[in-house]
Specification:
By secondary structure, the protein is α/β, with parallel strands linked by helices. Helices cover 38% and strands 24% of the residues. It has 5 helices and 6 strands; from the N terminus they run E-E-H-H-E-E-E-E-H-H-H. Strands 1, 2, 3, 4, 5 and 6 form a 6-stranded mixed sheet that branches. The model has no long low-confidence stretch (mean pLDDT 93).
C-alpha cells in the first residue's frame, strides 16, 4: 500500500499559520483522492480537543473518528516549513497529514513516530534539500 507519493511532499522556506498548514495538508490529501474537502473541519475539531504536536518539530494532524465518511483512501501529506509553524504554542517544522481507512491510520502513525523518534533521522529529514530527497528518506512509510 503506497500512502505517500512524491507529489504529496513539499518544502517551504517560510513559515505558515496552523490554519494554513491544516488547509495545505487537506488540499494535498484531496488532490491525492484520499479525502473530501470537508476533512479539514475534522482536523480542526481534533486540534480543539488535543494538539497533534508530537515533539521533535513534528505535528501529525488527522481527523476525528466522526470524519470517517470524508476519508476515501489512506494517504499522507508531508510539508516541511523551514520557518516553522506555531502549533498551539509549540514549534512544528514538519506537518504530516494523515488519512486512514478503518484502523490503517494507527499503523501509519506508528511508522511516522518511529521515523521521528531518532534525532539523527530528524536531522537528515531537516537537511534534505529537495522534495525528492525528503521523499526518499520517508519512503519506508509505504512498506509493510
Amino acid at each position: 500500500m503506497s500512502v505517500l507519493t512524491l507529489g504529496q511532499v513539499r518544502i517551504h522556506s517560510g513559515s505558515a499559520t496552523q490554519e494554513a498548514a491544516l488547509q495545505e495538508a487537506t488540499d494535498i490529501l484531496v488532490a491525492a483522492g484520499a479525502v473530501t474537502p470537508a476533512y479539514v473541519d475534522a482536523m480542526r475539531q481534533r486540534e480543539q480537543t488535543v494538539s497533534t504536536f508530537m515533539g521533535n518539530g513534528l505535528a501529525i494532524p488527522h481527523g476525528t473518528n466522526d470524519a470517517k465518511d470524508t476519508i476515501l483512501a489512506s494517504a499522507l501529506s508531508v510539508v516541511r516549513y523551514d520557518g516553522g509553524v506555531d502549533w498551539a504554542g509549540d514549534e512544528a517544522t514538519f506537518v504530516i497529514g494523515i488519512a486512514g481507512v478503518g484502523d490503517e491510520h494507527l499503523e501509519i502513525l506508528s511508522r511516522i513516530a518511529i521515523l521521528f523518534s531518532e534525532e539523527d533521522d530528524v536531522a537528515r529529514l531537516t537537511a534534505a534539500q529537495t522534495p525528492d530527497e525528503l521523499y526518499a528518506l520517508l519512503s519506508e512509510v509505504n512498506e509493510g
